[in-house]
Structure prediction request, 554 residues.
Amino acid sequence: MLAMDFRGPKRVRASQKPMPEIKHPEDAIVRVTRTCICGSDLHLYNGNVPDTRVGMTFGHEFTGIVEEIGSEVTKLKVGDHVLVPFNIACGKCIFCKQGLFGNCHESNPEATAVGGIFGYSHTAGGHNGGQAEYARVPYANVGPTVIPPGMDPDDAVLLTDVVPTGYQAAEMAGIQKGDTVVVFGAGPVGIMAARCAWLFGAGRVIIIDHIDYRLEFARNYANCEAYNFRELEDPVLFIKKTTDWIGADVCIDAVGAEAAGNAMQTITGRKLLLQAGSATAVHWAINAVRKGGVVSIVGVYGPTDNLVPIGNVLNKGLTIRANQASVKRLLPRLIEHVQNGVLNPKGLITHRIPLEEVADGYRIFSAKLDNCIKPVLISPSAGI
Amino acid sequence: MQTITRDPNLLPGWGIDADPDNDPTYPMRQRTPEDHDGYSWVRPTQQPITVEVLHSNERPNVSAVFGTSSPPSGLSGIIRRFAFNYSENSYLHWLPLLFADRVNVVEGIVEDLAHGKVPNIWAEKGYKAQWKYDRVGMLEKIAAAALVTTAAVFVLSRKSAPKKHSRSAR
Prediction:
């Protein structure tokens, strides 16, 4: 089968690989119908996540048709069209039982700090991902969810990560009616976080980025204010001024390790890898939020150390919440929102790229070429 | 530069998930008494371990399910095995893993060549797309790289010149 093949930092290709096999009684094999490149794939693509081994297939956002099931799979049948949450979760461990499906303890032997994630390095379990014609889906009774009749597959594929992550960013922030919410990062997740902030009753939503076309997209899609930090004297100072010198009630970091905007962070975090990525966005979030405010982090950082202004967290009495989205927990509500027209996930998709051209897809997305917001890869076997 | 937000009440779904009890400054944990027993849940069936699986020393075992994407091998595998002697709290875990990744890249090229495949670096880096959508930027980068290289060669050759001169003077 054809699959994305990681060859090293900024080097990927589509290669012929062996078909995935059932390796556990709760496994399913799916024929991938849609798969995306995610902003967090770029951390792998750029070589920032440890234990990203040559030969891996990335891709944690995908939908597919069930081709084969293991002997203990009871919730799915061959032929079902499913959306597959990016977290691999057993449903039985202490964390899954609390709804923390993003923190499963039975899907990743390599690290205890993160659960298993499709196509996300061996630090997240060494599971091959969905940027392929076929994928192995462990714990098929837990994560995969049958796509409701009538739902567009383009909407469904964004329910595997982008929509739940953006929604959980807003949920973790505990937004109260009338709150001013600042989102750092106008990538797909940041835009979705801004859109979802309204669902929790935000009174004002501001998004900060440095790419004009993304800011324009965010203005239109999320109905929010959008500012280019390169045109501001200082983004934190700007937030203070525009909130009557108080600060935002909530700041959301939807950037993670690849943040631009601070030379020291860029050099130590992105270039020299002495930090787990550049912590610029989380710096700005901590410093721009009001005293007693909430900082919600969904931007992905690698392990293990980051230079963050923890003294300001203490002195300002902040609450910080952060997590990988627990997709399974959120899906029922989000499916309802999509079906009712409250959310329009597929509106984020700007590019449809054949899997064979995966290298160009990564380049377009990572270099922010051709006004790309969200690319979808279509495999030759997709069929739809 | 700025678009003032419309009246939020007019936005589809505004406030429909508002919940005054969702206040993260008072976190709630949904825990049962059994949860305090620690590593005590009924574990799923263990996936047969047919490849080498490195597991964190912060857990006693291999998780019930794991990926088999790229088992450790070669020199990078030796470095990875070393790294897994240290906990996730340690630089001696993560930095060797990053180093192993770089070694693994070279191993990947050697593996390609051994299989008679010459990696198409231009295509793998997606430069075709870069050329299509950002030709000017790409040419600027190439020109900048050429300039820096030329300058470096010039500076290095100037440094070495006086030595030759002083030797010949003797």
Remarks:
- Chain B has five helices and no strands.
- The two ends of chain B are 69 Å apart (CA to CA).
- The mean pLDDT of chain B is 86.
